[in-house]
Amino acid sequence: MKWFKIVFIGCIFVFHGRVNAQEQPSTNNATVFPDRVMLSISGNPASERAVSWRTSAGVAVSLGQIAKASEGPFFSENIATVNGTSSFWEEGDASALGHKVVFDNLSPNTTYTYRVGNGDNWSEWFQFTTSSANTEPFHFLYLGDFQNDIKQHCSRLIRQAYSHFPDAEFVLMAGDLVSRSNEDYWSEFFHAGDWIYATIPTMATPGNHEYHSENDTRVFSKHWNQIFVNPQNGPEGLENKSFYVDYQGVRFVSFDSPATGYYNDARINTEKWFHEVLANNPNKWTVVFTHYPVYSCSQGRDNEDYRKVVQPILEKYGVDLVLQGHDHTYCRGQNLENVGENCKNPPMYMVSVAGPKMYGLNVNRWSERAGSQIQLYQNISVDGNKIKVDVYTVTGELYDSFSLEKNKKGINKVIESPEISKIRELTQIPENAKDRYTEEEKSLYRERFEK
């Protein structure tokens, strides 16, 4: 089956005032003390967590210590020490080491405290709470692309999101975490989230910027597999990039959309795996998170070949929510006019952006709600037969809000929150994107977005 070919045009746009991470003074010198601590869900979320961190090259021992959290500092008798592993922090570069440890056989719905180190030099104590083993209400954060100017502009976004929802159970990222997988960009990424990453697990799917070109070949990030420890249940060759997690009644599926456009084997393996994971889902809800949008929101983008393959699969298995990035705008809707004949349950498609790169909206509007030139974070709550999505600007103001309510036949009803009718859409075209529109398209844009 023909899959698709992605035409990447994003490099045309320039964010005014941007300073490349490569041009800033380097702050990434590793020491004997653990830094860049990242908490991941590596398996069953009720009983397992993984942690990764970085040190200087001479620190060969990898240890994690964990105990059930107490009301005070008196838990030393209950500490368990777990051996980890180490490898180069960046593949092929011996200047720093990355470390990983897996904490398993944990109790459901229990708060633990942990630290990582080598026995002499330790991180501070962090803490996390495992999920319930049952179907219970929870909520999580969804973030679009960070990509560039992360320290300057994404720091306040992720800190605002955490301050607003400190009890979110994990953070879901829709790709393009960095503009290029090098030390300076990752330094900014970890500066922005710092200890938040060590406290709330991150589930991330790759974007096209997690790949780069070498000798006419697309090469995957040399840091990703050291930073993230995801379930190893993905298709052959895409482990740790495509995967799924069953969390309290929801199946979350990471679908590495860029890889399926770069490699023939990935295309074949992913399609088969995607069918199997969605067909054999015991949960009430299904959320797919991927980088490339099924329906584009930005002017000049329309991945028809990709959509022709992916959309029927999403519709066939009744996927409820599709969380995406890539387009540096905001939009959400079901696009019911283009639903296929064999659609079991029309998915709700969302595209969002967390970072400062901004594009203009597509004049071929399909969404119920849209936005441009705004940084956003989403809090998504799951409770029984209802998923509620609340979208906030970086200043903490509500921008969009809707619910999906599932009936006995598994069909969702979309209910838009009444307060949204009073919130003006922010849809201005960025100055640096205006040359992407003809005069006729600008007129159409004003008609569709600037009423």
Pick out its properties.
Metallophosphoesterase, 2 domains, Calcineurin-like_PHP, seven-stranded mixed beta sheet, globular, Purple Acid Phosphatase, chain A, domain 2, acid phosphatase activity, metal ion binding, alpha+beta, 451 residues, Immunoglobulin-like, 18% helix, Purple_acid_Pase-like_N
Number of helices: 8
Strand order of the largest sheet: 11-10-9-21-22-23-24
Hey, roughly how much beta strand do the residues contain?
25-35%
- What's the overall geometry? globular
Largest β sheet strand count, sense and barrel closure: 7 strands, mixed
Termini distance? 43 Å
What is the H level of CATH, i.e. the homologous superfamily of the largest domain? Metallo-dependent phosphatases
For the secondary structure, the number of strands is: 24
Radius of gyration using CA atoms only:
21 Å
| CATH 2nd-level architecture of the largest domain | 4-Layer Sandwich
Structure classification: alpha+beta
What would CATH call the class of the largest domain?
Answer: Alpha Beta
Helix content: 10-25%
What do the pLDDT scores average to?
91
Which blocks of ≥5 consecutive residues have pLDDT under 50?
4-27
